Amino acid sequence: MANKPLSRLLPLALGIASLLPAHAQETTDSLPRRELMRYGASLDIWGGTGRLAPSMLMENNGGRFTQGDGIMLDLGAERTLARKNRFEYGFGMEALVGWQREVDYLRYDAENNAFTVNPQSPSALWLQQLWAGVKYRGVYLKAGMWNRDNSLFNSRLGVGDIVLSDNARPVPRLSAGFIDFQNIPFTRGWVQICGEVSWGKMTDSKWNENHFNYYNSFLTTGVWMGFASCHFRTNPSQPFSVTVGMQSATQFGGSAAWYRDGEVYSTYKSPVRFKDFINALFPWAGGSSTNAGDVAYYDGNHLGSWDLRLRYRLRGGDELTAYMQSPWEDGSGVGKLNGFDAVWGVEYRAADRDAILTGAVVEYIDFTNQSGPMHWAPGDKPGTQIPSQATGADDYFNNYMYNGWTNYGQMLGTPFVPGTIYNTDGFLRITDNRVRGFRLGAEGHIDDTLTWRALLGYRTSWGTPLLPKPERTSCTSMLMEATWQPPMLPGVGLRGAIAWDAGKLLGNNFGAMLTISYSGAL
């Protein structure tokens, strides 16, 4: 959404979140010290009836599989940051090499005044992860790019974290925070805290340049990213535990060019100075413009979430969790002016990790309120005689200058909102953020060597607050997956999956994937 005033609550929340650095991605309490080094390889082969892979094959896989057909070899190794030792260092690398078929996007040819076909596919070779980090006691410092697995929200069975998930390729960044939840002094372990601050540089400028239509809307490159989170948790050893907190993310910097009928009519280069990195997470002062009174405007695309989890452990050790993750876009959602908008879920986890049903998730997702139907800020219209403001039309994950909250066309947060990779007309904005639907997910064991997972989802879209659709579109998606680990071949896994989409939102598409993998430890 275009920049809107942030409430006074946001600077306070951001200050707390930033000063109290979130979850490191690796936890290795049960891993012997001599096995801190892990390595693995996998070969993925998939095909389908659509130009792009079915959504449930694509989502929450780190942006690895996007096209309708492909073959991919994945090689990786890492030394994890173990929690049990006072000081630890770690590093990791993952490389992907393979082929994925081309998808045709539209591009405007100004010289011939016509649209042309612009076939695009991912590179044959790229680095998925490359990072190094250190840990002392409960605090870590990490640099590079790595897959993010937010344990607060189950991305294997649910729609995943709506702010920063493992849906897109990782963004290179510098991150500091707590390795896990840490006891707050003087609370005797009854209250714990976890937090993170990070800054990163987006690497998808070339992708955006290659997929843009150069006819309408805008193109922004050279974008920076900031992220902060802060969560509090009551004693997890008790039968009942509560986790509550906030996440905040920002896109800032970059160069934008606006197009109309194939011609550039405006450009803007956003400065990137030291204070801009601070303001990305601590927006105490106004940005390029201010409104009347004490309300300030802030440069960049600000978004985030309020998070709440209520977990209850049954006598047998099984756990039931009710959770809510509510999005906010700039200031209005921070004050929860966006009504019922949130991911509302219930999760079941079995104490027996070898049970037929080890986990299940039921989620209802609603992003249709968006703080009301319209947005009006006097600061956007200098000289206006209308002093009042309406802080609606949040336009989740969109911004007046940035090409959506995406990386390489896929959502950095939840894939429940389709990313710009689906826009084969070359329009680099989120086109379906007013969505509503549900997600069902379950997984378990058939025996000691065979596991299963099943997903079912439905969503309906009304477009966006600023670009509503003339009629709503919907999509039903499913995935069925089985993984076999042959007892005679330790470390080897065979996985088969089928998935499909049905409906006008994403089109009718069926696909299947076969994976052969090997993993080991030193």
Please give a handful of descriptors for the protein shown:
single chain; 522 residues; mainly beta; 3-stranded antiparallel β-sheet; 4 helices; 6% helix
Uncertain stretches? 2-32, 286-297
If helices are DSSP runs of H or I spanning 4 or more residues, what is the number of helices?
A: 4
Percent helix, as a range, is under 10%
Q: Radius of gyration over alpha carbons? A: 23 Å
Distance between the termini: 48 Å
- The general outline is globular
Q: What percentage of the residues does DSSP assign to strands (E)?
A: over 45%
Q: In this structure, how is the largest beta sheet organized?
A: 18 strands, antiparallel, barrel
Q: Roughly what is the average pLDDT, rounded to an integer? A: 88
Count of extended strands? 28
- Structural class based on helices, strands and sheet pairing: mainly beta
